[in-house]
Here is the input.
Amino acid sequence: MILGGVSRVLLIEDDPAVREGLELALSQHGHRVRAVESGEQGLDWLRSDLPDVVVLDLMLPGIDGFEVCRRIRAAREIPIIMLTARGDDLDVVAGLEAGADDYVVKPVQPRVLEARIRAVLRRIGRDQAELERHADLTIDRAGLVVAKRGVPVSLAPTELRLLLELSGTPGRVHSRQQLLESVWEHGYFGDSRLVDACVQRLRAKIEDDSAAPVYVQTVRGFGYRFGPV
Amino acid sequence: MASRPSPGLRARLLSSFALLCVVTAAAVAGAGYVEARNAILQRAQDAAVQAVRSRLEAVFPLRNPAPDAAELGEIAHAVTDGSDDAVAVYHETRSLDVPGRPCPPLGGRPCRPGLDPGMIPQGLRREVAGGNIAWQRVVWQGEPVLIIGTPLLIVERDRPARASGIEVYVAHSLLPEKRSIDLLAARAWLIGGAALAFAVVLALLATRSVLGPVRELGRAARLLGQGELRTRIAVRGSDELADVARTFNDTAAELERHVEKLRAMEADARRFVADVSHELRTPLAALAAVADVLDEEAARLPEPAGRAARLVSQETLNLTALVNDLIEISRFDSGVAALAPNEVDMAELVRATLRARGWSEQVQVELPPGVTAWLDPRRVDVILANLVGNALRHGEPPVSVGLRSDSHWISIEVRDHGPGLDEAVLPHVFDRFYKASATRARSEGSGLGLAIARENARLHRGELTVANAPDGGAVFTLRLPRRAHDLDGG
Here is the structure.
């Protein structure tokens, strides 16, 4: 994924000044940035090249950011960080539901964006552990493969890390704050909707019935826990 | 709005009506009663006196100028008509009762042994002794009696009449007249009472017709005062009260129009601020993106370009903070700010706030463990960061944060040990862009921090207050319900 801290970033942003500013700032932090001005161009680019992370503005002419997000997700498990307007809560929720891993609020401070990019790209530590079996679910911590009834499940990076974090200590309750710190590397005051949205996506992929989850269970008022299955 | 302790309109109207009625009835009935009573008594009196005189004619001539008791008895008997009592007196001698005379048919009283000279008033006796015929009304054993006294005169030719020394007194009962008069009085009372009752009913009807609209007016005015600007009164009839109601309605309509206009203007102003903030965001996003680049390159730039670059970078950050705060407060204004509550350990939350900003060493904390609350940690962090930041910037150390709780509320107190806030400033510290002094230079922060903090507290249905501690220093107190909303984020 990342080689020597240099990552390839696809920036999709329609405003030329913002696009140029972010391109400058990210380049200065050592990223190789490909900046495009529309969702169509971004999706075109993704067909031929494979960036490490996508930074996506939600307000785009033509196909909007949510649709771009869904199309990228349908094809690949690339981390997606969305740029949202401050306070547009519905956008945040819709963006997370469309499959974004994280979001930053405009006007963006480049060091915040940089920290988010590093967080989503951080290598998942590969353990030497045995293959774990939890009912129908098998988790290969070394190969980073999750399978359900033997069929591999395609998980986005954040979903995978959330699952690994939770299943690492089955039965233990993780508060949203703890998960935000360990999975998203946000501080204590991260947005807990990130966790909730990611849990929803994860459930849709690994549970038989999302409304009655077995693997990722809600502990009302406290957070989430894995199992007991 | 408070009612005065004077009697109400209803009581005043009622008493006026009653008083009027009583006075009128008393005047009319009283005058009639007195007139009728006098007439009745006068007639009875005249008739009795006339009867006594005419009977006395029969006594003359006297057989004996110095009669004994028996003769006096005959004289006395002669002047009565059988129903009156009489006595004849000659110096110390009085008439004997005529034996066998039946008791007069007066109502229910014991039979009288003639007329007792003791019941004859002294004044009357003197008058009669002076040679005049006289009468007087007395009450004898609870019964009105007319006593007529007359001297018997000796009349001789060519000589003036002289008193014979014999006096005759007749007691004529006025009981029938008293009954008529009592009946008259009873009728007067009855009619007066009926008139009073009628007057009270009339007064009640009148007060209802007046008080109903007045009460309605009062209720409407109260509602209007409470902000129910759509309050109107139904106008009935065309009297003065209807005029008042119409005036009230016109005033309320006018008021409503003005308030709506003001509200619209205020909403426009706020929307304008929100729009401007949103419009500023895109260029600011570009600026903010390159501010870091500029900042890092500043060291390598020759002066004054380096200083200029740092200035641009710093002010871009300030501008970003200001625009973010403006957007935040316009979200409160438009009511779209929402809570994302969670079960939170309060001590952990306070420590995280301090830790995230590197304040842990500077701030004394008193955080009892195990206090949890259902609230939006990010919003509470915004409040705390603002309060502690202000205390560190504007107050004197030590700055302390204390946490207290009961079963329903948690309360967080942030205080410094500086001189405290000016009393004139205290009510305004939560105002937007409030500056303690007009000359004060632009301070750090947007000037919206405390306004946003208070809005965040209110969003939790809590409150944020400020006061000066008795021993110096400003104390900000944040009080939040332990369960602001019963929503589950999971």
In short: Chain B has a mean pLDDT of 81. Chain B has three domains: 9-100+110-182, 240-333, 342-481. The first strand of chain B starts at residue 85 and ends at 90. The domain at 9-100+110-182 of chain B is CATH 3.30.450 (Beta-Lactamase).
